Amino acid sequence: MELTRVEEKDSFLVEAYLQAYGLWRSRRLAEAGEVLRKSWRACGARSLRGMLLMGYILRDQKRYVSEIACLQDLLERFGQSGEDALLADAWSVLGSALRMLGESRLSVEAFRKSVALEPDVRKKLTECSNAIFSANAIDPVSAESMQSLYVEYRTLLEMLSVRPFPVRQWNHRKIRVGYLSADLRNHPVAQFVQPLLVGYDAEAFSVYVYALNEKQDVVTKALQAGGANWREAAGWSWEEIADAVRQDEVDILVDLAGHTAGNALPVFAWRPAPVQISGIGYFNSTGLRETTGFLSDVHCAPETASPYFTEPLLRLAHSHFCYQPFTHFPAEGTPPCLRKGYVTFGCFNHFSKVSDRVLRVWREILRAVPDSRLLLKHALFDSEEGRDYTLRRLRNLDFPVDRVEMRGFSRDYLEQYRDVDIALDTRPYTGGLTTCEALYMGVPVITWIGAYHGARFGYSFLANLNLCELAAADDQRYIEIARQLAGDPELLQLLRRTLRGMMQKSPLMDAGLYRNEMESLYRELFLSAGR
User: Fold this and answer.
1) CA gap 112, 88 in Å, rounded
2) d(CA 315, CA 55)
3) What confidence tens digit (pLDDT) does each residue in 431-462 have?
4) Would the pTM count as exceeding 0.85?
5) How many Cβ atoms from other residues are within 10 Å of residue 325's Cβ?
6) DSSP state, 232?
7) Most buried among 14, 69, 89, 524, using CB within 10 Å?
8) Which of 416, 440, 467, 497 minimizes the C-alpha distance to 323?
9) What is the CATH number of domain 175-322+511-528?
10) Rounded Cα distance, 41 and 452, in Å
11) Which CATH architecture does the domain made up of 337-509 adopt?
């Protein structure tokens, strides 16, 4: 029986999709895209799967503007197709692309639409986590809006009908602490957890690690060398992770991911450990009632309670971070203003953190400091369309674009701090590892003192270095600090020479002090739980 013309067209599109998919999996991105385009031109039609694959291809090519256009076209053409799982995927990929461009509100909306369409409740939870993560970059973001997202997350979690483990009393001598993370590798989180996994008090504590990362590297091996009981949990279900924690009789389970990629927060719903806390790898509340507390410090959290959090804040006396870099750092060099004759401000933060409000403040800094420049560095600028999109955004804000330089990703990014005199932090989603790296390269960082834990990271770093004068309570003060610092080349030269040593001698890098404070906290939590 002969195929109808419609069947022939569908067959042709399926064949082209399968060919393009194979090329995409082999990372032959340009060829994969061309196969799809040729098939669309040849038969005058497109398929939902083909357009979704094109979205992934454009994403991997870092052509985020084209990716957004492709996905919006897909949703316009096929939004009523009834293919809910594929449409949910399209909304999710769109949300990620919007986040990359700094369109945080639109990103949250896209992820929530993915939640609504996704038929699998576990995937719904992942998309809701994505929405919560994106919401942190909205400026301003209200406590009410965050709490609304937490309610949505908890409601979805209830759909799993989890039955928590019954309360049990262990009979072991040491306090057992378990760490749950997908980032125990060459990742920002790993730069802050070494004191917890290496050199801990083995007479008083037993440490268990539930590593969700599939890939291991030299950083993973360095952390494994600390002697913790290491569980390779990549690919495990939430139930399997919870059961393993229970079988290990863990007293305190520490989540190091929050609502970041690859997290296993739903494990908390099983209550596998009497004490369950979160922190380090995330900057805001888990939103879960099962969370005993969230790790913070006296600088990030003025009080133990916050309207942005559902759990109490556990405040360390110094820093809730301990920076222990695995990276080899080049020499700091000298402030570039001494050889160039003008000051260069810089920001290497993820560009999704750069809101329009932040750009307006930076615009005023450039106006206040004659002949100054702004250096932006991020993977968004690897593509021409990423740079063009950002230039349009800057021009819409009346930004002096002729004084802005955009650089893409590069492995020598630390050396490029030699081209920056003063680093500018973002708000409300501040820099973490990026701020530490800038300071370690001798570059002073100007930050805001935000309204809640995650918006005060920069302030905490500076407070631990006794450099609170670089933290601003409002926009005008932020601009004034930048103007004053730019006008003092001798101070910039002094900071370039001394910041690294200041960090090494500060609580921010004192592994022994940090470990003692954390272990004291663990003992306190253990006793308060009646163990």
Assistant:
1) 9
2) 43
3) 999 999 999 999 999 999 999 999 999 999 99
4) yes
5) 17
6) E
7) 89
8) 440
9) 3.40.50.11380
10) 52
11) 3-Layer(aba) Sandwich (3.40)
